[in-house]
Amino acid sequence: MKRLMKLLVLSSLVAIGFTTGCNEKQKQEQAAVKPQPAKPPTEVVVPDDVKRKWKAVEIAVSDKQHNQQKVYTIKLGSELKIPGSNLTLRVENFLPHFVMEGTTLTSQSNQLVNPAAQIVIREDAKEIYKGWLFSLYPTTHAFQHPLYGFTLVDYLPAS
């Protein structure tokens, strides 16, 4: 009789374990399938005085294979084909005093407090990166490419 009781208790514990495990697994599967709330889109607002003051940026492109670096001057709103590669680099915007206000990215002033350039990189015409280069924080949100590195090094005011 004691043996039967032990067997019943043991089988009950095993059954509870399976039930709990299944429920946990189901919860994990449901959580994985559950749609995540969409992030609100960010908007880039370049103040008119900033648009008038700045015309281009200088971006250093590092060739990791050959341990070389070349600096290119790229006008705002234009793109450059990186020589010897299948990459193009487009400079979308420049914000000399980059700030994020809610979902809006803008410049608080024309002072070079936190200079940032919004870039788009395409490889074989396919967009592989759209983001920001920060001159004071070059590793923040840095784009990782196996062959090339990109750094914002200077900014050119309009004459």
TrEMBL record:
The keyword Lipoprotein applies. Residues 1-21 form the signal peptide. It comes from the Bacteria. Keywords: Lipoprotein, Signal. This is Lipoprotein, putative. It comes from Citrifermentans bemidjiense (strain ATCC BAA-1014 / DSM 16622 / JCM 12645 / Bem) (Geobacter bemidjiensis).
